[in-house]
Design brief:
By secondary structure, this protein is of the alpha/beta class. The chain is built from 19 helices and 12 strands.
Length: 559
């Protein structure tokens, strides 16, 4: 900012030197004055350039630093979000805020460190010098300001909404683009290329139309303001010429005033041009603040306790749960059960019965609306979430893999584990054989979203990742749905040997997966319709009998 102030002082000094050359040098035919003053002008120009370069370097560093800090703050904020927050803010919205919106705000910061500060200083400095030099000619320039102000007002009124609309159109375009790229295989599978082309063309055309309208208004505004500046120049020359004839002013002052006119009007022109961009940045800043102002739905209490060791006893006490703003019936209603340490608890039920919602409450991905969940007698809401989840191994319904090697993906939750432990865990998850079949084995790079792996292979890697952390509570959310029955049985047998003292929660679609469970919970419309082991339920639960018969045939009671 100091450098910028010095640039303005230097630039305002140059018209004065021009006046000196004309009045004292040319008028008096004094070559010495012309030479010395010209050297001063060259020196002032070089100094102004050096100061401007230094200002640019520092302002770019500052604005880019601001952008990097804000991007990091946004990313870290997103990491604190619970599942409920992520339900409200989609991936496309978050990406737009981290990219396009952030760039808009960063650009305004850059401008504020350069043009936004320089323009008012130049305006005030030029006007001050003009009034101090020749008040009569300064009034001529002052007369142009109301006309310019009216033009700027109407320009901002028209263009400001267009800048905002451009950002909204860009967000729609990004959303269409992101959906298409993430679902490109579905598009090709259902031969919907033309449909997607039409969607993109529609979004692209709307952005084009808005951008063209905005550019047209800008193109009209510039020539009008330039015409006003030229009219001001003519007025200064005309009235200044009369004063020259009368001997009350000099030709050099006229030239200086012409330069100061441009120094006064050009900042007005630039600020009015930036008004639209300020509006766009304001809209972007609002969207960024929407993310930064979000309060995580699930967060630690100030006096949350730490857990060094747990036994793994999980108790649900009259738990009712509704997704925020769901507007419908609760997903879970008065759910109560006990999972003792080392027990294998299986969850069965139709799609939408609340199985995944139930297990998502254990690691506090969501909080129960009513009732409570305890681990070893402690309410999960009283435990630090990082400690709570560090004792759990979780393989969610969708096997998500990250860019990197297979080895890195397996030890994602325990990065310091040895290669031997990684291999042993992969064997338990029945993943070792297919991993070693790759030319690079465990160093095989995982493609984008695991594209070079089958669904079953991704699930087995996800299971190995969950097992490697040596959890006291293991949660497998339909994690073997893409695995064949024989491999699934091998995984089950290996888990029984390894996870003897681990409390396991398993959601499965195949009833063969849960036959050996210590406890089976049959869910129906968010309630526990039946509870017990296979032998008990096959005798007492019509829902369980129906599921059993539909998958394994009649004769369930005898089995």
């Amino acid at each position: 900012m100091v450098l910028l102030g010095l640039v303005v002082v230097t630039d305002l000094f140059i018209p004065r030197l021009i006046q000196t050359i004309i009045d004292d040098g040319i008028a008096n035919k004094d070559i010495g004055v012309i030479f010395r003053t010209s050297l001063l002008m060259i020196g002032a120009s070089i100094l102004s350039a050096l100061l401007a370069i230094a200002n640019t370097l520092y302002s770019v560093k500052t604005s880019r630093g601001f952008e990097a800090d804000l991007r990091e703050a946004l990313f870290k904020k997103i990491q604190t979000f619970s599942f409920g927050n992520l339900d409200d803010l989609t991936t496309g919205q978050l990406l737009t805020r981290l990219t396009s919106d952030l760039s808009q705000v960063q650009m305004i910061v850059t401008m504020s460190l350069r043009m936004f500060t320089r323009a008012p200083l130049m305006f005030l400095g030029s006007f001050g010098i003009m009034f101090a030099t020749n008040p009569d000619l300064a009034v001529v320039v002052l007369a142009l300001l109301p006309i310019t102000a009216i033009l700027v007002y109407f320009f901002v009124r028209i263009v400001r909404p267009l800048f905002t609309e451009v950002q909204e159109r860009l967000e729609c375009l990004n959303q269409v683009l992101q959906e298409n790229l993430s679902g490109i295989r579905v598009v090709k599978a259902f031969v919907r290329r033309e449909h997607e082309n039409e969607r993109f063309e529609e979004a692209n055309s709307k952005l084009y139309d808005t951008s063209v309208r905005m550019s047209q208004y800008i193109s009209i505004f510039f020539p009008i303001v330039m015409a006003l500046m030229n009219m001001g120049t003519v007025a200064i020359i005309y009235f200044g010429g009369i004063q020259v004839f009368q001997g009350t002013t000099s030709l050099g002052q006229i030239m200086a005033f012409t330069n100061y006119l441009f120094s006064t009007m050009f900042p007005v022109l630039m600020l009015s041009m930036m008004a639209g961009q300020i509006s766009a940045a304001s809209a972007s800043a609002t969207r960024i603040m929407e993310v930064l102002d979000v309060e995580p739905e699930v967060k630690d209490k100030p006096d949350a306790i730490t857990l060094d060791q747990i036994q793994g006893r999980v108790v649900f006490e009259n738990v009712t749960f509704s997704y925020r703003d769901d507007g419908g019936d609760p997903v879970l209603t008065e759910v109560s059960f006990i999972a003792e340490p080392g027990q294998k608890v299986a969850l069965l039920g139709q799609t939408g019965s609340g199985k995944s919602s139930l297990i998502n409450l254990i690691p506090r991905f969501y909080d129960a609306s009513e009732g409570r969940i305890t681990i070893d007698g402690i309410d999960v809401r009283d435990i630090k979430t990082s400690d709570l989840r560090s004792h759990m191994g979780i393989s969610l319904q969708e096997a998500v893999l990250f860019s990197g090697t297979i080895r890195d993906n397996i030890r994602y939750g325990a990065p310091d584990t040895s290669d031997e432990e990684v291999i042993e865990t992969a064997k338990i998850a029945q993943a070792h054989e297919f991993i070693t079949s790759f030319p690079q084995g465990y160093d095989t790079m995982v493609g984008q979203r695991g594209v070079n792996l089958s669904g079953g292979q991704k699930q087995r890697i996800a299971i190995a990742r969950a097992l490697l952390v040596k959890p006291k509570i293991l949660i497998l959310d339909d994690s073997t749905s893409s695995v064949d029955v024989e491999t699934e049985a091998e995984i089950e047998n290996a888990l029984e040997t390894l996870m003897g003292d681990t409390t396991s929660f398993i959601i499965a679609q195949r009833i063969s997966t849960v036959l050996k469970a210590d406890k089976i919970l049959v869910l129906d419309n968010g309630r526990i319709a039946a509870e017990g082991n296979h032998e008990e339920l096959i005798e007492t639960s019509p829902i369980y009998q129906e599921i059993y018969d539909s998958q394994l045939g009649d004769g369930g009671a005898e089995a």
